[in-house]
Design a protein that fits this description.
Blueprint lengths: L6 E10 L2 E10 L2 E7 L2 E8 L4 H11 L9 E6 L8 E6 L6 H6 L15 H5 L14 H4 L2 H7 L2 H6 L3 E7 L4 E7 L2 H14 L8 E5 L5 H9 L4 E4 L5 H9 L3 E7 L2 E6 L18
Parallel strand pairs: 3-6, 9-10, 10-11
Antiparallel strand pairs: 1-2, 3-4, 5-6, 7-8, 7-9, 11-12
Helix pairs in contact: 1-7, 7-8, 8-9
Length: about 280
Amino acid sequence: MIPLDGMKPARVTEWADGDVRVREDQLAAEEPLEIRVDGRSLAVTMRTPGNDEELAAGFLLTEGIIGARSAIAKVGHATSGQACNVVNIELKERLVDATHLQRNFFAASSCGICGKATIESIRARGLRPLEDGATIDPEILYDLPRRMQSGQQVFDRTGGLHAAALFDVDGELLALREDIGRHNAVDKIIGWALLGGKIPLSHCVLMVSGRGGFEIVQKAAVAGIPIVASVSAPSSLAVSFAREMNQTLIGFLRERRFVVYSGELRCIVTRDPLPLVTSR
């Protein structure tokens, strides 16, 4: 989980209904992490320190640089320079196109695909549609945001972090990661699963804070996650991609209500066709 250095103290001035006071606040830390492959710089992402090795491993998998845990020989922080902000992954086979990849990656905390030349290049990776099978009861599904929030220790103290939580279809929390960037939190979850030999996550649900954007859905699909849920709205591209991948995508999951944008049969089973209600 996020260590204490994932938070930074700051002296602030607070105005509240006419009263002014000076107090110490806790901010979510944001620092650059350089990801190296075989000692060569591949990418820089702005992240909250903590679970850096998971983040780097998850990033390599979700960005298509590796295809399985077996490709990794060793992962760890660099031993020189800014060691705490550099992770190096040694691969069992050297990448012949590492220089090309280096030119195409720069991830900021607000967007996981800023460094990609085109979205078509992501789709061209040959991801296959996910298999049917995993289902979740709506009575379990609607309670996931509460279960996720109960594990957000750093968010409770800073209010400034996104979270990604992995559940099984029975609602058991398997892992939770927080980060300043939505896509980083997801990469940490997927990296945790990758390094632990748990990929594909074919009977799991990924719950994320904020919106369900394209990069979140794409990363989940790479990890084999069939159900993605968020407390806010997905983007049009996320919905299109989820339908293409036979992935269940759920938005506005809160207070016994949710909207299913793709793959409704994994969470809602009805015998009769539902009437179409048009928006006005």
